[in-house]
Amino acid sequence: MRRTYGAVRFVAAGGIAVAVFSQLVFSLSFDQPDVTHFLWNYFSFFTILSNCLAMLSLLVAGWYCFKVPVDPPWLNLTRATIATYMVTTGVVYNMLLRDVSLDQSSTLVWSNEILHVWAPLYLLLDWAFASGRTPLPWKRVWVVVVFPIVWAVYTMIRGAFVGWYPYPFLEPTQPAGYRGVVFYVILIAIVILAAGYGLFAVSRARKLQPPA
Length: 212
Known about the structure:
The chain is mostly helical and 212 residues long. Helix content is 69%, strand content 0%. The model has no long low-confidence stretch (mean pLDDT 91).
């Protein structure tokens, strides 16, 4: 059974990779005045970064399914943090961005749905039900906020220099100005922490035994 989970993880990672790079190629098919700037912007989206991390974590976790009966502690922590980002991506997109057109050329509908709905859902289900997971200590839950904080700082500093922000709610030019930015950043931070605590709780509430 554990090898089956590994095979499914490889398939899921492949699906995410196809969605990420299909959207990239489709966007590049339009006339981009500055390709380097466009690529930098594309890989500055939290959605793209979290999905790329998810793809890599699924490949590594899938490989471990064929090698050992229980995932090593560092992999459990990594999977939990990345699943947290993916759950956050799904929640924030469906709460704030589903009806918003982002400035990165036309969007592939099927790719958009994979990256914002199906991939986050799969990461959540994989964390909840796949074998090999072990309980995570509460003292490590702070790790889930490190990457989002670094990303937020990078985004705001870069945005101040280039005048581009990946999401409308991060735009200082919005009606509420920086107060609006702070409000949404705090809201997303709450979502991230809630998702992180939830995933840690899942790991502690139900220890999945490796298959015999």
